[in-house]
Amino acid sequence: AEKFIDELEPYVPADAGYAVDLGAGCGFIAGEYALAWPHLTVIATEVSWPIEVDPEQFWAMPLLRRSLKRLSEDHASKAEKHRNKRGKRKFQVEPTEEMEDAVRAELYNRMLSQAVEVDVLQAEWHNVAEFKGQCRLVTCTMLMHQ
């Protein structure tokens, strides 16, 4: 993710707005964008396919939704373990790891609630049309990954 962030950094303006990641795959890198650029609301999307996708398959929107849910749950579980571990100690420890995991859990949960499918072959991208004029970055991480 650091390579993508370094490559995109010169193109990311400092003002608040939205970043839309088309074809975000599992959503992990989109989450790293959100952490690197907290002034942007990162919208993870998956690209529409001209076929009906079985929601039980592990690709396209099912992959994105499952992965964001899993990432959120994993970080929430880690934060809880850090809290429990910290609570058992006789002295107070800086809850840095706990806070980082809690922030990531909330981030992935928020991204899951905002994840949409986009038909990039259409002239108008209806599922992200509400962000028109407010996008500061539109990228396709999985294309850059290839």
What does this structure look like?
There is one protein chain. The chain has 146 residues and is of the alpha/beta class. 47% of the residues lie in helices and 14% in strands. β1, α2 and β2 (40-47) form a beta-alpha-beta unit. α3 packs antiparallel against α4. The two termini are 13 Å apart. 23% of the residues are buried. The model has no long low-confidence stretch (mean pLDDT 88).
> Largest beta sheet, briefly?
4 strands, parallel
Strand order of the largest sheet: 3-2-1-4
Q: Give the helices and strands as they follow along the chain.
A: HEHEHHEEH
Strand content: 5-15%
Q: Report the oligomer.
A: single chain
Measure the end-to-end span: 13 Å
Q: What number is the mean pLDDT? A: 88
What Rg do the Cα atoms give? Answer: 17 Å
Principal-axis shape: globular
**Structure annotation, total helices:** 5
Give me some keywords for this one.
14% strand; 146 residues; alpha/beta
